[in-house]
Design goal:
mainly alpha, 13 helices, transmembrane helix
Length: about 400
């Protein structure tokens, strides 16, 4: 019996002559790759192995793991939004400013997670296409920019509350904070839509609804995106460190110049401010750890942009997938690293805020153990808990 013919009774699957050197790699669905034209320096068996590696990696690290992490993240953030909404509705006007920014950040996270589920559905039903790639890039950029804007605003307001408390009380109103949040969202959405629409052409420029040349469109946009993300990331870290140093110097100067009877009050105020600063530092730490890999992935992608852009040549078909298996694997490794770290940050962020905020922790401790309570019952009980948790006036820095 020939090696190219199936054995009797179907005991062995047919292996085409193109893959007879690698029977262990060949699978029945791979028959469609037998007619693909390969160059003289390419090995069909190596291409088949790379393709299978890409499919196995994609199945686990771009499907199962992100789906589980996204589910955990969306549950944690829904829980945080519910608690934050209760606190926002029952706190003093001053404290509402901080919770407005926290709720805005969590809403941004929930929107991104919803878009992530949509991408997963698109991928499972029809594979990655221009539309799904657009949504993937849009949601990543949106969360990055909204978080950056939120932390810059929160750091600025905390600094004003510490250094200029009277001006903060009189001039920084809840309405102005809501306006700042709206501006952050408008800028983030506008930039993210542009990144999604034009960035997706890098991998699907032949199937995109408009033409975007590599040299005049794709590459400049990629450079702008990496520069903007880098500036946003560094500015958040640098601004916080500068504010922390300036605050410490200010308190040291006040202690030297102040009278003895005011030293105790200055020291007490410093301890309160330091607690508020450390609480914000935990949030920024999560931001730094979770967003740094995304920035690294963007820089690596920019360095290999011309090589990755070859995936956009022609329409997607079985031969294109077969010939570019190793390249698809590289892209999927970059995407999986960004997605997993991004989702882990979304899980840790609400946990850090709940643990570091006394009002959140007191509210959580009072939640009934019966998890079958309805949302409205939890809200009504939350109102009573918040009232019992209030212990006098909070200082301006404690609002953050």
């Amino acid at each position: 019996m020939s090696a190219f013919e199936p054995e009797l009774f179907g005991l062995s699957e047919y292996i085409p002559p193109e893959f007879e050197k690698c029977p262990n790699e060949y699978r029945e669905p791979d028959l469609k790759y037998a007619n693909c034209v390969v160059s003289y320096d390419q090995d069909r068996c190596v291409l088949l192995r790379d393709l299978h590696d890409a499919k196995e990696f994609r199945k686990f690290f771009l499907a199962y793991v992100p789906f589980i992490l996204a589910t955990i993240a969306i549950l944690f953030n829904i829980f945080f939004v519910v608690l934050g909404g209760v606190l926002f509705a029952n706190q003093q006007v001053g404290s509402k400013k901080r919770y407005a920014f926290l709720l805005s950040r969590s809403i941004s996270t929930l929107m991104a997670l919803t878009l992530f589920y949509i991408v997963m559905i698109f991928w499972k039903t029809g594979g990655f296409q221009y539309s799904s790639a657009t949504i993937f890039l849009l949601m990543g950029c949106l969360t990055f920019l909204t978080l950056t804007g939120t932390y810059l605003a929160m750091t600025s307001l905390l600094y004003i509350a510490i250094v200029h408390p009277l001006w903060y009380k009189q001039k920084v109103t809840l309405v102005k904070c809501l306006i700042i949040i709206s501006i952050i969202w408008l800028v983030a959405i506008a930039f993210s839509v542009c990144v999604g629409l034009f960035g997706a052409t890098l991998f699907y420029h032949d199937s995109a609804p408009f033409y975007c040349d590599f040299k005049t469109c794709q590459q400049p946009i990629a450079i702008v995106v990496v520069v903007v993300l880098s500036v946003c990331y560094v500015s958040v870290m640098v601004f916080y460190v500068c504010m922390l140093i300036r605050m410490r110097l200010r308190h040291a100067t006040r202690l030297v110049e102040g009278r003895r009877d005011t030293i105790v009050s200055i020291t007490t105020g410093k301890q309160t401010n330091i607690r508020a600063m450390y609480r914000l530092s935990f949030n920024l730490g999560v931001f730094a750890v979770s967003k740094c890999p995304i920035l690294i992935v963007a820089i690596v992608a920019l360095a290999h942009l011309e090589h990755l852009a070859t995936l956009g040549n022609g329409y997607k078909n079985s031969c294109k997938t077969y010939l570019n298996g190793s390249l698809y694997l590289q892209v999927e490794i970059l995407a999986s690293i960004a997605a997993i770290v991004w989702l882990c940050g979304m899980i840790v962020d609400p946990v850090v805020n709940i643990v570091c905020d006394p009002r959140f922790t007191k509210l959580v401790k009072q939640i009934p153990e019966n998890v079958s309570y309805t949302f409205s019952r939890c809200c009504r009980r939350g109102r009573q808990v918040v009232r019992t948790c209030e212990v006098g006036e909070a200082s301006d820095s404690e609002e953050f």
